[in-house]
Amino acid sequence: MDITKIKIDSSVLANDIFNFAQSIKLNIREKSFISKDSLYASNIKSIEYRPMEEKIIIDSAKMLARYADEEFFKRAVYQTGRMNVQTDSIVCGNFNIHTLLDNDKLHIGSIDVYGLDAHIYRNKTYDMDPNAYKKLPQEALLSLKQKILIDSVKTHDSYIHYKEFEKKSVVPGELYLDRFNLTLYNINNDISVLDNTSSMVASLHARFMGKANLFINVTFPILSPANDFWVKGHIENIDFPI
Predict the structure, then answer these.
(1) CB-based contacts of 58: which residues, under 8 Å, 6+ apart?
(2) With a threshold of 0.85, does the pTM exceed it?
(3) In 3-state terms, what secondary structure has residue 73?
(4) pLDDT-based confidence at residue 16 (cuts at 50, 70, 90)
């Protein structure tokens, strides 16, 4: 752990005990964390907390499959997506630790994800898990025990590659999105401040298959009992063979 520019005086101790250093950095390097199902290994290079700037910086986050395609799907048993995801950095801004400690609410003003690179491969020759239940975004958000409010999450110039193998396929079908910029607003599960007009909103702008601009907006009413959502968007002209 590296602590930069320690400053302790009577004002710090009396008013703001967490601003005693300019930076607190935990270097994790290549230590990996194995998922519960053993299919993935995750690691980050470092986590840095800058109290005076109310900022958290995560350097080089990765979640990588531990097995090659055939072995991965065999171990997974049921149909799932094999993912390799990594980012250059994740910057959390306007994070005040007092809000968490005093009110038990995690409030982050912004999360900016840089250099996101995601590769997803789904093999649909495997059966779906009959007991699997996938929660919709609002349902997943409201089921969290921790109260959270994240004003915005943004990805910057990311790359998403998706590959799928179907039962009738000879080779997998593939598509990709580059210049992928997604913004998600108002991630909030605090019932005390939500009402029937409260919504999460996702706005996506990307380039499809390196050729056509794609625009999508999705609205999720947070307290909707039906967990419904609205989607609108369009894509520019693109040659059908592509």
Answers:
(1) 44, 46, 47, 48, 87, 89, 90, 91, 92
(2) yes
(3) helix
(4) low
